[in-house]
Specification:
Rossmann fold, six-stranded mixed β-sheet, Quinate 5-dehydrogenase, alpha/beta, 2 domains, 12 helices
């Protein structure tokens, strides 16, 4: 049996383990949160190195993208460098393939993404494939990178502006401790009420809210039937979204035993199936394997 483990800076309350069979191979897939403790995450990575088939880094990005430029997050690189033997991934390969394909799937097979629909993407540089696809299909997108990650009340309206701003500020932002940019540990279990009041209108003006679940959750006001397009969700997350008034949940990764895992976990699974170093895997190989696995987005009505 192959073992894939996600080591996350997020809350240990979200830990989960499943056994599944994919393309004839049995997998044990698990997620282990370290409650925002960076040193604990480093120690766990070193403990797992050489003992599992792939490791995913959760609750943190190693690479952010805008256009053709890639920006490396220093804290993410430190975690990745702790692993010497086992393939280690951050999910960015799937964010540029699976999540892009999810957008196309929703346009082709549902009425959730009509042309011109207003979309709030809470952060685009960590899911640039999704951002490009939404823009390509003619959605009216507001990118909230500055608002929700940097605390700067400025909505970005175009891909070109996003790339320009990213080139100016990301080289310095990626040097900051990651907890200053993204909710880790206990922050994943709470909302930032001040920013909910200040910036909640961006959610309410949109019909689709897309992006990382923890960012989506942390700043979410009451909703009026909006569609949420995101990644990792638990049964408790589904209850939260229903209570907030969301109309539909779309998760880009498949559901296993009541929850969807993060892109880092699923990318770890795919690396284990492909038997190739992560750096050598092409987008085409990911797409081919996604077709063989028949991964489709989960679409769950909430109303």
């Amino acid at each position: 049996m192959k073992r894939v483990v996600s080591v996350s800076l997020g809350s240990s309350r979200r830990d989960h383990r499943v056994e599944v069979e994919l393309l004839g191979e049995k997998f044990e897939i698990s997620r282990r949160g370290t409650d925002g403790d960076f040193d604990k995450a480093l120690a766990l990575l070193k403990e797992l190195d050489g003992r599992v088939d792939a490791i995913g880094l959760g609750g943190i990005d190693v690479f952010l993208y805008a256009g053709k430029k890639r920006y490396a997050v220093e804290d993410g690189l430190k975690l990745m460098a702790a692993v010497k033997k086992t393939p280690v991934v951050d999910g960015s390969g799937l964010k540029n393939t699976l999540e892009r394909e999810t957008v196309y799937y929703l346009r082709e097979h549902t009425d959730l993404l009509p042309p011109g629909v207003k979309v709030l993407m809470v952060s685009a540089v960590d899911r640039f494939g999704m951002a490009e696809a939404l823009n390509e299909l003619g959605c009216e997108v507001t990118f909230g990178d500055l608002i929700f990650s940097a605390g700067i009340p400025y909505p970005i309206r175009t891909i070109g502006e996003l790339e320009e701003i990213a080139a100016r500020i990301l080289p310095e932002m990626v040097k900051l401790p990651f907890h200053m940019l993204y909710p880790t540990g206990k922050k994943q279990d709470s909302q930032d009420e001040e920013k909910v009041q200040k910036y909640g209108h961006y959610y309410q003006e949109a019909r689709v809210i897309a992006g990382d679940y923890h960012l989506v959750r942390r700043y979410m006001p009451g909703l009026t039937g909006q569609t949420i397009v995101t990644n990792t969700t638990t049964a408790a997350d589904v209850d939260f979204l229903r209570e907030k008034g969301a109309g539909c949940l779309v998760t880009t990764t498949p559901e296993f035993q009541g929850r969807s895992f993060g892109t880092n976990v699923m990318e770890g699974v795919m690396v284990a199936l492909l038997h190739k170093p992560w750096a050598e895997i092409t987008p085409g190989e990911y797409l081919d394997l996604l077709k063989r696995l028949n991964f489709k987005p989960r679409i769950l009505p909430l109303a």
